[in-house]
Amino acid sequence: MNWLKKIAFGILVILISCVVWANWYPPEISTLLPKVRVSVFKILDSKATENSFVELKNRDGVSALKFSEESSELSIIYEPSTISSKKLSKELTHLLDGQFEERQYVSSGAECPVQGMELFKHQLKELFCFRQPNFQND
Fold first, then answer.
1. pLDDT digits over 116-129, tens only?
2. What's the predicted TM-score (pTM) here?
3. Which listed residue, 37, 113, 130, 135, has the most CB atoms within 10 A of its CB?
4. Dihedral (C-alpha) 104, 109, 113, 117: value to the nearest 10 degrees?
């Protein structure tokens, strides 16, 4: 029975240590930013210009939009919580009469440049952090 108390005390100390460690510094501002995704489309309409996509650029959930006339590619950064990729495709179909195709990029080599232990530490800190980011200039 004595060893059970020691194990419970050890777990309690570890949990308290994690909470203190996670809340020692305020969290990074980037943790409050919405998650975004990037979609790239190959535009088959040769008459398309940057001005062709103004309506899509002003849409809620679209953070940025860039059209390259050299490569005829349209890059869209959007918030998937606000607008889905299917809805973006529908909007493009409406604007271009279906004259586009979504580009699929396959990464070669390593999948993620972040080491597994660094990612684990970041997720652990996010889990135990109860502070709000401080936006004041120090």
1. 788 788 888 888 88
2. 0.60
3. 37
4. 120
The CATH number that applies at residue 96 is 3.30.70.100
3-class state of residue 11 by DSSP: helix
Range of the domain at 84: 37-102
Residue 96 within any structural domain of the chain: yes
Residue 78, in any domain of the structure: yes
| CB crowding 100-126: b at 16 or more within 10 Å, else e | beeeeeeeeeeeeeeeeeeeeeeeebe
Q: How many domains does the chain have?
A: 1
C-alpha distances out from residue 115 to 21, 30, 81, 112, 123, Å: 20, 19, 27, 8, 13
